Here is the input.
Amino acid sequence: MRTAVLTSETDFEGWRAAAREMRLAGVEPAAGRFVVEGAAVQGGLFEEAAKFSDPPATLRCPRKEREFSVPKAFVDLAREVILHRSADRFDLLYRLLWRLRDEPDLIKVISDRDVADALERAKNVSRASHKMKAFVRFRQVEDAQGEAWVAWFEPPHRVLEKTAPFFQRRFTTMRWSILTPDGSAHWDRERLSFGPPATRDMAPAEDEIEEFWKTYYASTFNPARLKVKTMQAEMAKGYWKNLPEAALIPELVAASSVRTDVMVATPAPEPNVRFARVVARDLHAARPDVEAVADSLADVERGVQACRRCPLYRDATQGVCGEGPKTARLMIVGEQPGDQEDLAGRPFVGPAGQVLDAALEEAGIDRSDVYVTNAVKHFKHEPQGKRRLHKTPNAGEVQACRWWLDAERRLIQPKVVLALGATAGLAVLGRKPAVMQERGRALALDDGSVGLVTVHPSYLLRLPDVAAKAEARRGLVDDLIATQRLMS
Amino acid sequence: MARLDLRKKLSILADAAKYDASCSSSGTSKRDSVGGKGIGSTEGMGICHAYTPDGRCVSLLKILLTNFCIYDCAYCINRASSNVERARFDVDEVVDLTLNFYRRNYIEGLFLSSGVIRTSDYTMEQLVLVAKTLREVHDFRGYIHLKLIPEADPKLVEMAGLYADRLSANIELPRDEALARLAPQKDVGVIKKAMSQVRLGVEAAKPGKRDKIKPPKFAPGGQSTQLIVGADGAPDTEILDRSASLYGGYGLRRVYYSAFSPIPDSSSILPLSKPPLMREHRLYQADWLMRFYGFSAPEIGEATDGGMLDLAIDPKLAWALNKRAQFPVDVNRAPREMLLRVPGLGVKATDRIVAVRRYRTLRLEDVGRLTRSVEKLRPWITALDWTPGGLTDAVDLKARLTTRAPEQLSLF
Here is the structure.
């Protein structure tokens, strides 16, 4: 049996050096063990105790065989596992180190018994560290140097040194100490240092703010939703003795069912006396009449926001009405607002809008002279994760929304109406046009104005081929130029 | 009015804030107090500093600035017509409480909301002032979650985004008609517009690849919202559709579902009963399926009964029982997307299986070490030494998977 002596329970470097020597010496896992200096050693009479500083027996080996490497993942895992409070952790790690010689990918085989065991212990350590960040409670003290903060904490694993830097980063401007049975950590606003184990009586017994904290804890608890098991799964009873608020738990639990029953059984009371004086205006009492014929663009705007003619309002942010001068001679009608238009509440501000703007500019049309609107005022889409995918509105939705488009046309009285794409064509012409055949041609409309059809700018965005895109863009610009001619 | 002492105020205004389920402090930018004049840090993962007996985490000091309110929302304890005791904090009182709690490591930061007093703008201004004081006067680098008053001026929302990690506006009820009836001073359109503004703000704050000067931060922890379950008649499918629409539209980090809870002094137009906690739990599970498991709201809806999720089994199991033709799934070959659909396999377990099967062909025992419980998985998977045979199609499979220890019947 070969025994290595480590300087402390968390002496990772010591374990690492000793384990390396042992593996080089060919000490099988069953024949090697690790003990901590000062801890009670139960050993055989003829044991060879070796500190890692002793000259290793392996010096006789050729140099090549003295070198071996292990994956970084193993070293990281071992650093964590060594903080676990189990006695056999050193042996488990050595067994893994030993096995790595023949199974270099072992650490990735997380279904392996030893690897799974080590991962489980690392998880417990990580959890203990996380809970330390959560459950340390500082109390304020005054000493010769002024204000300081002291906490007493009992972590289930030896995570003090691992976790102390967290408190340093968080409370950089405070002078604090965390005392535990394993050791203590001190931050003096400049340097983090570690000291010997402490006892509970070395920490202050109270802090006046704790009463406020307990008041908060009791008030934020909802007695109608008692779930004691859920609480205990996250805040194990072992932590309770050092949490000031935990003292309240028994009485909160005991009183909760009574409090809930009283709430459920009490009849609804009369409104309080100051109610009528303070209450704000009922927004829904004066909803606009969406059946009334709109007299102004402002009426259209109000009507669209309140519109329930089709269900599209439900998942949209807002209705998006047209935008442009009331005296515009050209009206451009798109299909429907897209994602960006829906958020901003303005037509053609998204990617398709940018294509349109560029094409308008090339055709020599000033967008600020044009009334730009859509056939359908709400964004029809389907959610997919964090995005919304455009869906083409159906004939029923187009028909329902013609109420608003017709109102806009009646109020603006444009000379020319340009429909972008088939849906807009349907809304303007009353029939679905064959866009590619009919594009760029003057079509007589019922109200005496001239209609034109062209492609929707988003069509360009969907074309993957650069040449096809350029051609489609030329077509759009040509149709805009044809539109321009019709106005003069 | 007599001045209330600070502890009494804290008790009133914490009690008034507790019906908001959100207490998350995760997902914001990483920062600490090194080199600063104050205290505070955020390191990605949120920290729950305590748990109350309702199983909820206490991560933030969650309070209202005031519970005076000019709105009369039937489901809310602070509605104008309620007889609840009222209180109001000064800005400095909230700032002091936050710092005092933070120094003692009780909290990750502040979650501040408020009843609407005077005007929406005035109220929002006060909320922003608290956050501004914490950040600028005290160099506080902990977490701040501010509730948006949706009717407030967009400029105030913009300021709130500069100081807060997270912003939230509650959509409150799944049905717009119910909101109009139960919260007559609120308008769902206004709430959605506020959410739009936050999404656009968050997107604008993301630096482009070639930006040399980074745009100012805006709510790095994103936004969330809350739906009350069981106060209007909306079935689960409608609630999930609404959530899917909110996730897609506004890039929400979370939708919280809050079982309508009886409140002291409650309104007569609402159901007075214990909160439907199991329903709330199933909704959260379904929400998880949508966000992390690749399920769509309609898919989950297929396995519901009249639009309601089965309360006895989780929604993934309900879905799988309906789609048995797709099972069993070979753990050694199936794509990740399909493994995620196996009842009993979570995201972590799935990733472990995918990682380890490059090195080993898995037996049932191996799967057992990679997951919580292999028993639940048996009907749905095949492994090197396991095939479920007729188990997958067993008529009584649901009963077999849900049997609990027999209970002694009452004699009376």
